[in-house]
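Per reviewer request, we include the raw input and output of the structure prediction for the construct analysed in the revised manuscript.
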Amino acid sequence: MELASDRIERARTLEPANGDYHYRASLTYAYWALTLDPAKYENATQAFSQAVAVSPHEIDIYNQWADFEVRSRNSDKALELLLTSLDVDPRWAPTYYHLSSVYRDLGRDDEAESAYQDSVELCPTMWPVCLELVRVLLSSAKLAEARPYAESYVAALPKDREGRLILASVYQGLGMTEEAQEQGTIALSLAPAPSQE
């Protein structure tokens, strides 16, 4: 790890206007800080800051930095970065997805729901985001609002067991017992998702 950081630091010194070097350094230090040495947090934030200074319109830098801050348990800083990212490009759907997760971490459920909806509206085929929106709406007992998203998800991914089970929950909550039973039966016939372990 030290060899990699030495080489990146040398490149950053030789070409300080090259944002890619700062970005690579920030990712290297972020990984280092999260997995091996928390003391590298400052190196990571400094490299991210330099990457943003050199390439202020690169949305991915803000999103990666925000992800690093979330993993470092600094959701307030992540929120600040994501809001800045939206100032740069308000049509980048993944930013809304990350923003919704940060809002949930901060207990700001209404804002999380709104950010999920913005993400799905900008990119309706981001199916994992769609399913997260359904979960958020279910947790807020907004079953009628959750239904079209859950149905769209199942229509796009008909062999997804979890999506079928969630749609069954939506239907059950809406008093649509036959539809709920049908979705539950289909879900039980599908193989469970592979273990993430």
